[in-house]
Write a structure and sequence with these properties.
The complex is a heterodimer of chains A (275) and B (307).
Chain A lengths: L1 E7 L2 E8 L10 E5 L4 H19 L4 E4 L16 H19 L4 E6 L1 H12 L3 E7 L5 H18 L9 H11 L1 E4 L2 E4 H7 L4 H4 L6 E7 L7 H12 L4 E6 L17 H14 L1
Parallel strand pairs in A: 3-4, 3-5, 5-6, 6-9, 9-10
Antiparallel strand pairs in A: 1-2, 2-4, 7-8
Helix pairs in contact in A: 1-9, 2-3, 4-5
Chain B lengths: L6 H9 L1 E5 L6 E6 L10 E6 L9 H11 L3 E5 L21 H15 L3 E7 L1 H8 L1 H4 L3 E7 L14 H8 L2 H9 L1 H21 L8 H12 L3 E7 L3 H16 L3 H4 L2 E6 L9 H16 L9 H6 L1
Parallel strand pairs in B: 3-4, 3-5, 5-6, 6-7, 7-8
Antiparallel strand pairs in B: 1-2, 2-4
Helix pairs in contact in B: 1-2, 2-12, 7-8
Classes of the chains: A alpha/beta (275), B alpha/beta (307).
């Protein structure tokens, strides 16, 4: 395990790197892209375990914290989507420097799937993309966060601070910031992210892809099913997985961090195919 | 208000070091923020206890960098099985603090970073872990920040009341989750257990002080550490636990010892991560309180940097 802060746009970003057991490698290297805001803390454990798992499978791997997230520097309130992508690409440079690899596999969780897809689109030597419980479009993501706020207030017997997601989004536009479950959403990020579409970000992608849904459902959710259908049309190597769990991405996991050995093992097996 | 890094805080961010702390249950990942060379040295290291180490809203990252500009060294770390640390993840309970992890970090900071005096700070389970260090390291601990933690047995959130359980349990989504998800079933068992504890509490005059807390409390009383208890007056951990036991714990102390203990209760709730304003109020109070423990008078580099 190698811990290091590396620069991106003049600010230090935290990184954790695991090299493959054989040392410097010509296999692709893995970069883990985390989700947005407080979800980063909630889901950080499984990303860290995936870095180890990838190294066990012979692929050097790195996780990093984007600016304004975790142990990195940077103002969360000034963050834009392009900043996340820029940091992902800087993490790609970092993992290549540390591992000697020339190709990258991007693994993105939740909003990190958007970041991974956008980074892959800008990076010539992408070997594969894994999308873990991906967010399909920006606006749905913000609405989901706000519904979590309403649900949480109701569960505690409190009157919700707003009556609908529409009202909260209007407040965000008007005031430039909104407190959603203790994590503020700021106008710049909202404006840059609300119209993002994962399908659009992946429109030119034609490589190995892994899609994992993490929801307590017996089938793929309609948007995930549509994404899979779209990818299947391209005849690209595709692997899919359903994890029937509800981690509660927006709510801090006080008692135990969420992990899924099935998700780790299946992603590891997919990485074997890429190596 | 959103955090805008000052140049002094950015400088502290550049100075941060990631460390791998050996521990019996797996190496722990810790971030050390060195004190600013330009500030009068506090000669004290603040150890923040949190899950994950940076706290979901990064309040502890801000606290560490702000305090470092005033001359404090600061460490935040992941427990075993959490964040980036090694070890397997298990359920945490307030009466089973991760003392070995905390001790490993403190001793590492003593041996590798040269600190002799420490300030420990945590909330809820993390507060109970912070206080658990006193039984072994009392003389080295200058202060304890104890935020929002219960001190009695049978503590549980009021959100787990029978009407909420029936309402949530009757939803099709919940039933589907219970059928499909092992984690949902574990959460349901926990919710029922907490609801059961609340029923017991209703028919019990006063719940007993937790024996684990009592052991650690006695060690704190024996030490010379200053202690801050921070609660919201609507917190269950205050109304149903600390407030009930305050006379038993504090009123019997001799005046000199009692003077080391400060109780700060804010209106409304403090033990919630769901409202940004509460987190900011807690952060500012924490930073100001720790600054007051600085052995030398300090200027305000944050204000100076801004000007």
């Amino acid at each position: 395990m190698h811990l290091e802060f590396f620069p991106s746009k003049g600010r230090p970003l935290f990184s954790l790197f695991w090299d493959a057991p054989a040392g410097r490698s010509v296999k692709p290297a893995v970069v883990m892209c985390h989700s947005f805001g407080a979800e980063h803390g909630v889901s950080g454990r499984i990303l860290s375990l995936m870095v180890r798992k990838a190294a066990d499978h012979g692929l050097p791997a790195l996780l990093y914290h984007s600016r304004g997230h975790g142990d990195s520097a940077g103002d969360f309130c000034d963050l834009g989507f392009d900043d996340l992508v820029e940091d992902a690409l800087a993490a790609g440079d970092q993992v290549m420097r540390l591992s000697g690899s020339k190709r990258i596999v991007w693994i993105g969780l939740r909003f990190g799937a958007m970041t991974a897809a956008a980074a892959a689109a800008r990076y010539a030597d992408t070997a594969g993309i894994a999308l873990w419980e991906p967010i399909h479009n920006g606006r749905d993501y913000f609405v989901e966060l706000i519904r979590g706020l309403l649900f949480s207030a109701t569960a505690r017997g409190l009157k919700p601070p707003i009556s609908s997601s529409t009202e909260m989004l209007a407040k965000l536009e008007r005031e430039g910031t909104a407190d959603v479950l203790g994590s503020e959403i700021h106008a710049r990020f909202y404006r840059e992210a609300r119209d993002l579409s994962l399908t659009s970000l992946l429109q030119d992608w034609n490589g190995a892809t892994f899609v994992a849904q993490v929801q307590p459902r017996v089938r793929f959710a309609p948007k995930t099913a549509a994404l899979i259908a779209d990818l299947e049309k391209r005849n690209l190597p595709l692997r899919t997985l359903m994890i029937r769990e509800e981690p509660g991405w927006q709510f801090p996991m006080w008692r135990q961090p969420w992990i899924s050995n099935e998700l780790l093992d299946e992603t590891g097996a997919w990485l074997d195919g890429l190596a | 208000m959103a955090w805008h890094e000052t140049p002094a805080e950015l400088e502290r961010a550049w100075a941060e070091e990631a460390h791998r702390v050996p521990c019996a249950l797996g190496d722990l990942v810790a971030i050390y923020t060195p004190p600013a060379p330009s500030a009068p040295p506090a000669e004290r290291c603040v150890i923040f206890f949190s899950r994950p180490r940076f706290e979901n809203r990064r309040t502890l990252v801000e606290a560490a960098r702000r305090l470092a500009t005033y001359g404090f060294g600061c460490i935040r770390f992941d427990y075993h099985g959490w964040g980036d640390s090694e070890g397997s993840s298990g359920m945490v309970y307030v009466d089973e603090p991760y003392r070995d992890d905390g001790l490993a970090v403190l001793r590492y900071a003593r041996e590798r970073l040269g600190f002799q005096q420490f300030i420990v700070w945590g909330g809820c389970f993390d507060a109970r872990t912070a206080i658990s260090l006193f039984t072994e390291e009392g003389p080295a601990l200058a202060a304890l920040g104890f935020f929002g933690a219960p001190v009695t047995d049978w503590m549980g959130s009021e959100a787990y009341n029978p009407s909420n359980l029936v309402r949530v349990g009757a939803r099709w989504k919940t039933i589907r989750e219970l059928i499909l998800s092992q984690r949902a079933r574990e959460r349901a068992v926990l919710a029922l257990r907490i609801a059961f504890n609340r029923i017991i509490m209703r028919y019990t005059k006063t719940p007993p002080v937790s024996p684990v807390f009592l052991r650690d409390w006695k060690a704190v009383v024996r030490s010379n550490a200053r202690v801050l208890f921070y609660y919201g007056e609507e917190d269950e951990e205050y109304r149903l636990s600390f407030k009930l036991k305050q006379p038993e714990l504090l009123d019997r102390l001799d005046p000199r010892t009692r003077a080391r203990f400060e109780i700060f209760v804010v209106p409304g709730r403090a033990h919630t991560v769901l409202e940004a304003a509460h987190r900011e109020r807690l952060l500012n109070h924490t930073v100001e309180w720790i600054k007051s423990l600085h052995p030398h008078a300090v200027e305000a580099p944050r204000a100076a940097a801004a000007s």
